[in-house]
């Protein structure tokens, strides 16, 4: 057997006539004594792998004896070339590098820090190359990603190929000449045309958003701020240019964040513009915002933002605008948001699987029980499952001691009088907010609820009996434990907003980052492994949920334009189109809009297509949907889901055979959310993933 030739054989990829040699090697590995292999005893040192490489290949013997039983033990090592090309519109920043990661230990086992950097082959840095040992005898999964190094030399994930199932190299393909992979396009036939690139979740950096999302922000003396076209430019005052500034200017299908252009970005009152600044956790920069008159290119003034003005999780900046001559010429009022990585978590998430925008467009229109049947109790949610509903929507908020509980309002009527004493006059009752009470206080409160015109006492439902499925204020963790994993959930996170008239919807003083973290952590620990979507009426909560994790998709819920409620100040909430733009800007799964936005039948299809073509998921909600006829209309138009109350009366139980998520394959897919969120490294009983290429229907 021509041993010395083997070196060349293994490196060569297209080797039909030498396959026999490989087979020979394979047999040698199988039947040869293991001790024939260590480097010291090899016939020729130069063709034997280093000790580390051997260790890497041995994974199936050592780590997964149970699994290995059904598969080949042995790694037939082989050099694999990874050739990657970037599309013309992908522009790398100077500090960015391409890397490849995969399930094999020699590809970094899905860890960002161990991903293998590639080598740029041309000056434009659009072609990349890497050669790496892999096992020819195993199916290999891999993805490409872009990272940058921060000042401490740590890797920051900028973007990754986030198809739910990664790229795959079948065993028989290992010997084929490798083609050229196009960055982002892992499955040409998958939803969205196959290109799917996602921003990395926050790990070693935090994000500041400066939000021009109210009707007016800039007052300039001598100017009609509504009529003046402005140009804004934000810059970091740090010498080390370590703040990454991006901007999103809302417009249909062009709302994504992108680097700020040299000359700045146009702005006029009433439009939406969001600056996003990403910085390392230990960095706090000062910024300058320059304002120009767009038509005349005249500098109108500048604003300085100092780090100590950006406190907590959110706030409103009120800053003077000064001219070149250091004169006060106006004022800027600007809300800001600070998004930090999940607290109490240093690692856990991996690049193995992503659900950030996982929603195959060929799924049927789902039936979602709004607050269960309408009452937000566990019994209600279970009734939706019995009525063959696919999902339930529920409302989550936190008590003063950060316990996530389910309740639809921001508070309820209560009384300090002992329960033996009956209440005769409504004036004896006080409206208490959930956020003012600890969980223990909440559970010992008397509860009065408004039913029609009167307040009725419901304290008997506020008792701590875990088995009582009708009880009020169930903990989110208890809800997760009580519901079958075949029932999908839309977990709506409640947060009061500023109304258009300048009043607050309700008070909230909890730290917004910890608030969101607490809900994500509870969900990771008790709720993963079922179809689960986060949602909120508050756009900032959506951005936070999106940037802190990669396991659960996020929906923006909005009333849009209706005559039912007062509007919020935030322009992102005020219309259907801006909701779509926000979902694109924040890279959400999609939106859930009130049915009144689509009541004009002639326009219905066109309006819905605006969302579905992007492509985004679109759920429709509202009490009007308790008409079977209207439901049928929306089903015919392929909306992603209908969210309505009283599914037991108007729902699908008479015609649907089973809920979508009863399918075992889908159970298996959503089981991987536990892996994505880092609560589990393997799915018990799950077979290795197969790429599910859902045919594209739209
Ligand atoms: C090992 O291989 C190298 C080149 O691949 C060759 O120069 C050397 O003579 C070989 N040694 C033995 C002991 O065969
Ligand atoms: C998450 O991990 C914890 C601790 O390992 C475990 O007790 C829990 O069952 C896991 N939850 C899920 C939903 O898998
Ligand atoms: C959105 O923009 C992209 C890129 O510019 C384009 O390919 C796509 O067709 C557009 N989609 C719609 C629905 O306009």
Automatic annotation (TrEMBL):
<dbReference type="GO" id="GO:2001070">
    <property type="term" value="F:starch binding"/>
</dbReference>
<feature type="signal peptide">
    <location>
        <begin position="1"/>
        <end position="36"/>
    </location>
</feature>
<protein>
    <submittedName>
        <fullName>CG11619</fullName>
    </submittedName>
</protein>
<dbReference type="Pfam" id="PF00686">
    <property type="entry name" value="CBM_20"/>
</dbReference>
<dbReference type="InterPro" id="IPR013783">
    <property type="entry name" value="Ig-like_fold"/>
</dbReference>
<dbReference type="Pfam" id="PF03009">
    <property type="entry name" value="GDPD"/>
</dbReference>
<dbReference type="InterPro" id="IPR030395">
    <property type="entry name" value="GP_PDE_dom"/>
</dbReference>
<dbReference type="InterPro" id="IPR002044">
    <property type="entry name" value="CBM20"/>
</dbReference>
<dbReference type="GO" id="GO:0047389">
    <property type="term" value="F:glycerophosphocholine phosphodiesterase activity"/>
</dbReference>
<feature type="domain" description="GP-PDE">
    <location>
        <begin position="356"/>
        <end position="654"/>
    </location>
</feature>
<dbReference type="InterPro" id="IPR051578">
    <property type="entry name" value="GDPD"/>
</dbReference>
<dbReference type="InterPro" id="IPR013784">
    <property type="entry name" value="Carb-bd-like_fold"/>
</dbReference>
<feature type="domain" description="CBM20">
    <location>
        <begin position="72"/>
        <end position="185"/>
    </location>
</feature>
<dbReference type="InterPro" id="IPR017946">
    <property type="entry name" value="PLC-like_Pdiesterase_TIM-brl"/>
</dbReference>
<dbReference type="GO" id="GO:0046475">
    <property type="term" value="P:glycerophospholipid catabolic process"/>
</dbReference>
<keyword id="KW-0732">Signal</keyword>
<keyword id="KW-0378">Hydrolase</keyword>
């Amino acid at each position: 057997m021509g041993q010395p030739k083997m070196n060349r054989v293994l490196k060569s990829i297209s080797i039909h006539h030498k396959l026999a040699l490989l087979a020979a090697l394979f047999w040698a590995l199988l039947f040869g004594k293991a001790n024939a292999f260590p480097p010291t005893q090899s016939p020729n040192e130069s063709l034997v792998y280093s000790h580390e490489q051997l260790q890497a290949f041995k994974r199936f013997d050592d780590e997964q004896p149970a699994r290995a039983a059904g598969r080949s033990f042995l790694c037939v090592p082989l050099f694999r070339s990874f050739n990657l090309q970037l599309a013309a519109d992908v522009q790398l920043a100077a500090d960015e590098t391409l890397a490849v990661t995969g399930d094999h230990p020699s590809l970094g086992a899905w860890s960002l820090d161990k991903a293998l950097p590639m080598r740029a082959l041309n000056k434009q840095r659009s072609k990349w190359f890497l050669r790496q040992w892999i096992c020819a005898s195993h199916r290999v999964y891999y993805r490409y990603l872009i990272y940058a190094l921060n000042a401490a030399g740590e890797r920051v994930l900028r973007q990754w190929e986030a198809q739910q199932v990664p790229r795959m190299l079948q065993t028989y393909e290992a010997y084929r000449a490798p083609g050229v992979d196009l960055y982002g396009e892992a499955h040409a036939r998958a939803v969205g045309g196959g290109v799917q690139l996602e921003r990395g979740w926050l790990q070693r950096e935090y994000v500041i958003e400066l939000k021009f999302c109210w009707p007016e922000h800039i007052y300039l003396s001598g100017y009609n701020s509504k009529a003046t076209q402005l140009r804004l430019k934000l810059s970091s005052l740090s010498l080390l240019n370590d703040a990454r500034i991006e901007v999103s200017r809302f417009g249909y299908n062009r709302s994504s964040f992108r680097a700020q252009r040299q000359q700045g970005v146009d702005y006029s009152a009433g439009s939406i513009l969001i600056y996003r600044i990403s910085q390392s956790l230990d960095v706090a920069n000062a910024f300058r915002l320059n304002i120009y008159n767009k038509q005349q290119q005249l500098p109108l003034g500048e604003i300085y933002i100092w780090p100590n003005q950006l406190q907590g999780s959110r706030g409103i900046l009120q800053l003077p605008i000064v001219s070149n001559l250091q004169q006060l010429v106006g004022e800027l009022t600007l809300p800001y948001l600070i998004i930090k990585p999940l607290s109490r978590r240093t690692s856990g998430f991996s690049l193995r699987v992503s659900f950030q925008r996982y929603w195959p467009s060929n799924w049927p229109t789902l039936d979602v029980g709004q607050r269960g049947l309408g009452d937000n109790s566990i019994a209600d949610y279970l009734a939706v499952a019995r009525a063959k509903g696919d999902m339930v929507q529920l409302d989550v908020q936190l008590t003063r001691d950060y316990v996530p509980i389910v309740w639809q309002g921001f508070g309820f009527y209560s009384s300090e009088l002992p329960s033996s004493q009956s209440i005769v006059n409504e004036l004896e009752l006080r409206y208490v907010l959930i956020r003012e009470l600890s969980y223990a206080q909440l559970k010992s409160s008397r509860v009065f609820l408004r039913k029609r015109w009167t307040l009725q006492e419901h304290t008997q439902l506020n008792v701590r009996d875990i088995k009582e499925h009708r009880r009020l204020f169930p903990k989110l963790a208890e809800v997760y434990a009580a519901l079958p994993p075949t029932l999908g959930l839309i977990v709506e996170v409640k947060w009061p907003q500023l109304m258009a008239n300048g009043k607050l919807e309700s008070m909230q003083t909890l730290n917004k980052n910890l608030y969101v973290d607490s809900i994500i952590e509870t969900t990771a620990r008790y709720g993963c492994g079922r179809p689960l979507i986060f949602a909120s009426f508050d756009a900032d909560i959506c951005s936070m949920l999106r940037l802190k994790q990669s396991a659960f998709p996020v929906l923006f819920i909005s009333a849009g334009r209706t005559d039912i409620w007062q509007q919020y100040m935030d322009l992102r909430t005020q219309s259907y189109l801006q909701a779509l733009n926000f979902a694109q800007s924040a890279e959400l799964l999609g939106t859930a809009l009130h049915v009144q936005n689509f009541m004009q039948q002639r326009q219905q299809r066109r309006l819905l297509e605006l969302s579905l073509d992007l492509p985004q998921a679109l759920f429709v909600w509202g009490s009007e949907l308790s008409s079977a006829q209207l439901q049928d209309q929306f089903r015919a138009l392929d909306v992603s889901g209908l969210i309505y109350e009283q599914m037991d009366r108007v729902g699908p139980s008479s015609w649907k055979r089973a809920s979508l998520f009863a399918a075992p394959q889908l159970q298996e897919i959503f089981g991987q959310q536990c892996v994505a969120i880092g609560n589990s490294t393997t799915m018990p009983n799950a077979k290795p993933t197969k790429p599910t290429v859902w045919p594209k229907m739209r």
